[in-house]
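Sorry to interrupt, but I need a hand with the structure work. Go ahead and set the record down below:
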Amino acid sequence: MKTTILCFLILFVALTTVVAHDGKKHKNDSTKAPMDSTMNMAEEQEHVAGDTIHHHEEGMTVDESKVTADLKDFPTLHPLIVHFAIVLIIVAAGLQILNMYLMKKEISWILTAILFAGVTAAWFASKNFHPHTHGISEHAQLVLDQHDKWAYWTINSGIVALLLQIINLFAFKERRWAASLIAIVLAISAYSVSRAGHYGSQLVHIEGIGPQGKFLEMEHGKH
């Protein structure tokens, strides 16, 4: 029972960390900029605001009473799904490393379920809900290629780890050497998904691909 509670606590902390990071105000955010930088920021905000207004004028109706967007309002569901894969695969890798020492069957079953959910989320994010781009720069395409490469490694190493974990549960009966092999494969998957997430963030926040559907094929229902 204590082992189960420990596993859920680890999962809760990981999820909380990811959510808190999105809304956390970093020290650099509160640093005062010089006057010319402030003016540049103001001009940039006006430009962004103009883009937002233009975007709403093109196709979206402003509804002040509606704060929470519906799923159909998103140009792609990829970012809503892929974060589950990132968290779950990394948590599964952490649990497997822990279980190399504890060798608890309860942990093995829990991480198997977590890994299955993570690999499934990664599969859907990269296949069914992978957004198609158009009109992006050559540099952005290079970043996208890296993102897709690491996503490929994430899925394949995750599937291998899941199969090995299932074999370990029923055939090897929780052998330590098998647990060590699974931990290595899961570490590869966790590293791969973190790299894919890095390039995905670069595409959005540096290359500007995705916000308000920019450079994406706007076809709802066909992701």
